[in-house]
Design a protein that fits this description.
Elements (H helix, E strand, L loop, with lengths): L9 H10 L1 H28 L6 H9 L2 H19 L6 H9 L4 H33 L5 H28 L3 H29 L10 H5 L2 H7 L2 E2 L7 E2 L1 H27 L14 H24 L7 H24 L7 H22 L15 E7 L3 E4 L1 H13 L1 H4 L6 E10 L4 E9 L6 H10 L2 H9 L9 E8 L5 E2 L5 H16 L17 E13 L5 E12 L3 H9 L5
Antiparallel strand pairs: 1-2, 3-4, 3-5, 5-6, 7-8, 7-9, 9-10
Helix pairs in contact: 1-6, 2-6, 3-7, 4-6, 4-7, 6-7, 6-11, 7-8, 7-11, 8-12, 12-13, 13-14, 15-17, 19-20
Length: 577
Amino acid sequence: MRSKRSFFNPTLYRTSLLRLWPCWAAALLAMVLILPVNMARSCAADVHLHKAVTAAGISRLTIDCTYLAAGGAFVLGILTAVLLSRYLFSARSVQFYHALPIRREGLLLTGAAAGLTMLWAPALLTAAVTAVVELHYGVIDPVSLGQLLLFYGAASLLFFSLGMLCCQLAGMAAAAVGLYAAANFAVMVVYYALAAVVQLFLLGFSSMTMPQLVCWFTPLLRLLALDKTYAIEGAARLVGECLWGLAIYAAAGTALLAAALLLGRVRRSERAGDLLAVSWLRPVFKVACAACGGILLGVLTLALYGEDDPSFAQVLFAVVAWSLAAWLAAEMMVRKSVRVFQKRVFLGWGLTAVCLALMLTGLKLDLLGLERRVPDPSEVAVATVSVYDSAQVDPERAVALHEGLLACRSELEDNRCPGVSVRIAYQLKSGAVLARDYRVPVCDDMPASGRLLRDFLSDAAVTMQMSFAGGLTDEAQLNEVTILDWDLGGETLLDLNHAQSWEVYQALEADIRAGAYTSASKLGTEYDPKSRNVVVQVDYSDLDETGRHTNSHWTEIPLSDRMEHTLAVLERLGLTW
């Protein structure tokens, strides 16, 4: 009789499901309580209050569950993987399983099938119960329910596959969980570790926005941040970008599962019980612990000791010292022994410490030109300058201000003079974001950088952008105009209707374009004898394509004798001094 190679064992599959029934039964109970029971409760409350149960409301309840679906998939993925792969963590059990008349491929594929069944079957049953609840109330929205299933299916596939790979790499259950956490958050931790050092050495890096690439390599946070639409009257949906992101994560999960299966074929059984079952991962683990631990703990130590502006020698000493402690701790975990004070152990740490020192020196000297980088205006899609308010300006104007501030580098590092925060951000045509933050000194004896900022804010176009986002194009954007007297504790001086408010706004715009008011007045370096302690507060909104108000904004403009148009309108409306 011809022999056959089987990649699936039904007996082992049934045994795995029966042994782990509390796991998927608890998941089923939680899913039922979260979605169909909560939906039935909400719909019953609407019926009791004589409100109509709508498809929009049903879809909102369903799509809101994506946040819990991401968290549940994250926890259940590693839990299921560890429970199915627990035989790999004991030398006796792994020898028993590998002695069975089942090839390793069969063991791994059967375990993967059992794991995905435990993750997906409760979700399908929950969806069926949810559909019954929707039919009971006469409103069903299969699109949102299907999108929720896709969301959970892709997320659970990704996290379960990653968990299976970590179980193949580790020799202990605790190590597998640790690798799983590191794989999910390592890129983000490394990024913030580097950002912490960059902020100490390079001017302009006081705050750094996490790049999209780092977000994609932190899948839990990325899944929680995927865009969803919540229309006022329509149904809630996952947008196209979210669906593409789920497709990418599902493909990544399939690749990780294939990598776990390939690694399982060559994994050495005698490594069971060790921290790491793969030899090449051990030096990577030690170097990662030494580098990340040294940087993070070194910067944290300096912060705890109140060193806001530490010297290069202090940073270097703190990072190298903590890297030694982290290296020895990693060595102890790998060897499962405290006897690690050996010559070759310190040799490995020494090479890592030299690399860290060279990296810090390169950052201090700005060998990569990060501090001096200013994009070409032709590469910029949108340029934004934020002082007290934000303004979208021409790229040439933003680049000129950026280059001027860099030319006054020594002034920007001087903390003896009061200063204001200036943020220059570029949205590049390539999709990347470049942002820099500076502290510009502003005092009575204005330095060159302060004069440069004052001249920039004195431009009428910049003032209009910062005050009214370039100007209101539709009277419907205006919500309210209020005249406040701070000498009287913020008392309202006039009650204006919408037509009068629009008239006051037009007068303000005329004064701004005539140069009677500029954003430079907010620098507050000198007292203006022509100023009044009265402000005009303008509340306005953006309009969407349907004419609805979306984002609300408000700005305060102090009155002065130079604002002839505004004073004339207010006097005609009955305001006198």
